[in-house]
């Protein structure tokens, strides 16, 4: 079977379109779906940080710090499938805070991010460090949601598209090199 230059170009183009269409979902890392506290939320108290990802994550690192760099996390973060929970040390004084997180996604690559939020203590007693009655976390810090990851993490699609490109390229290369034998004899 002979491949003309037009057919070979068409096959290469269609193979490239296939790889381009399937590669973004296939190469997507897990992402943060929701968090408590939410990004840019204003809370009155916080006793734990909850992060939910689009798939199972491992080796979580969660750091809670204020603008001066003082850290407020308590214990080690716990990962349970797609959820990570980190305790908070004591009542937080009023101010701006950042949750910095890093996990290893289900595809083995590290994913990280930051969630800024603000604490506005219900009274000056909370700012001074004396305990006050904490408000329920769900009432003060609504979770933020990110669109569900609808992509496929199937690398078979990517490798199939790349294999198609290689085969099409080889066919085009070998098809151009072969010359009819009768043209070589008449010259």
TrEMBL record:
Region Disordered: start-end pairs: 127-149
Pfam families, per database record = CopC
- Which Gene3D superfamilies does the annotation name? 2.60.40.1220
Query: What processes in GO biological process is this protein linked to?
Result: copper ion transport; response to copper ion
Gene Ontology cellular component annotations, sorted alphabetically? cell envelope; periplasmic space; plasma membrane
Q: What Gene Ontology molecular-function terms does this entry list?
A: copper ion binding
- Which UniProt keywords are listed? Copper, Membrane, Metal-binding, Signal, Transmembrane, Transmembrane helix
Q: Give the transmembrane region(s).
A: 156-174
> For this UniProt entry, what is the primary localization, expressed as one broad class?
other
CopC domain location is 29-119
InterPro entries reported for this sequence: CopC/D (IPR032694), CopC_dom (IPR007348), Cu-Rt/internalin_Ig-like (IPR014755), Ig_E-set (IPR014756)
Q: List compositional bias (Low complexity) regions by residue number.
A: 127-146
The signal peptide annotation in the UniProt record is: 1-28
Question: Which protein, by its recorded name, is this?
Answer: CopC domain-containing protein
Q: Which organism is it from?
A: Planotetraspora silvatica
Which lineage do the record's taxonomy fields give for this organism?
A: Bacteria, Bacillati, Actinomycetota, Actinomycetes, Streptosporangiales
